[in-house]
């Protein structure tokens, strides 16, 4: 599977503040992700995070005003990685669109798998929290904008048929992908053995949605 760098995507609006994270911030974010692997977000308290991170209460509140602020900071970190992951799709020039789609989906799954506990928590909580909702929607909206450009370019180049307007089509494709990925991360989804099982079906769906055609050939064996 293709790997993706952990560096942020330049110019992405939701990137974390400039500068390196402090040791305390790293400890807080790492401890929170670890705790979310065994507890639901609503069961997690600031006291739990402080204890797991091995820091003082004063140190915690020097950086984060609340548990939600920690989750939001962690999400911004992951959002940067997701935006790097989908760059092959948004940079597709039509020469090999299937590979661009497949690599982007593989890399997105890789990021999501590494940070599955955090993303599950955010996906379940954003309908009830304005800050998380805004961040989640910003990420999907940014990806939809880039994908819409790909659709528009492909249509103008004559390699994709007309149809639904590019922006709502891109949004439907990406929100559908987001929901499938969430279900795969939660586990026990009918017909899905795990996150990696969704890459090839979604590649077929994405290529069909973007270019109006089936896959040209199965992926080469690893």
Detailed description of the structure:
The chain is mainly α and 222 residues long. The protein has a single domain, classed as Orthogonal Bundle (Tetracycline Repressor, domain 2). 64% of the residues lie in helices and 0% in strands. Helix 4 (67-85) runs antiparallel to helix 6 and helix 9 (166-186) runs antiparallel to helix 10. Mean pLDDT is 84; it is low at 1-18.
Question: How is the secondary structure organized here?
Answer:
Layout: H1 23-36, H2 46-53, H3 57-63, H4 67-85, H5 87-90, H6 97-114, H7 116-125, H8 130-156, H9 166-186, H10 199-211
Helix pairs in contact: 1-2, 1-4, 4-6, 4-8, 6-10, 8-9, 9-10
Task: Give descriptors for this structure.
elongated, Tetracycline Repressor, domain 2, mainly alpha
Radius of gyration: 19 Å
Strand content: under 5%
Mean pLDDT: 84
Let me know the number of strands. Answer: 0
Oligomer: single chain
Number of distinct helices = 10
* CATH class assignment: Mainly Alpha
- At the fold tier of CATH, the topology name is Tetracycline Repressor, domain 2
Q: What is the count of distinct domains?
A: 1
* CATH-level-4 superfamily name: Tetracycline Repressor, domain 2
Q: Quick one: overall form?
A: elongated
What is the terminal-to-terminal distance? 8 Å
């Amino acid at each position: 599977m293709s790997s993706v760098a952990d560096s942020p995507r330049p110019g992405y609006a939701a990137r974390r503040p400039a500068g390196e994270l402090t040791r305390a911030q790293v400890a807080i974010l790492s401890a929170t992700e670890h705790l979310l692997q065994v507890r639901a977000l609503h069961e997690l308290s600031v006291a739990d995070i402080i204890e797991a991170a091995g820091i003082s209460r004063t140190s915690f509140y020097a950086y984060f005003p609340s548990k939600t602020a920690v989750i939001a900071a962690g999400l911004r970190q992951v959002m940067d990685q997701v935006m790097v992951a989908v760059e092959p799709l948004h940079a597709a020039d039509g020469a090999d669109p299937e590979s661009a789609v497949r690599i982007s989906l593989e890399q997105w799954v890789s990021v999501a798998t590494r940070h599955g506990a955090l993303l599950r928590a955010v996906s379940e909580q954003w309908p009830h929290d304005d800050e998380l909702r805004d961040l989640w929607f910003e990420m999907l909206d940014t990806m939809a904008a880039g994908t819409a450009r790909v659709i528009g370019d492909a249509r103008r180049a004559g390699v994709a048929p007309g149809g639904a307007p590019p922006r709502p089509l891109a949004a439907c494709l990406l929100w559908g992908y987001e929901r499938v990925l969430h279900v795969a991360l939660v586990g026990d989804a009918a017909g899905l053995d795990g996150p990696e099982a969704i890459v090839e079906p979604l590649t077929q769906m994405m290529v069909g949605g973007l270019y109006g055609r089936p896959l040209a050939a199965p992926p080469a064996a690893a």
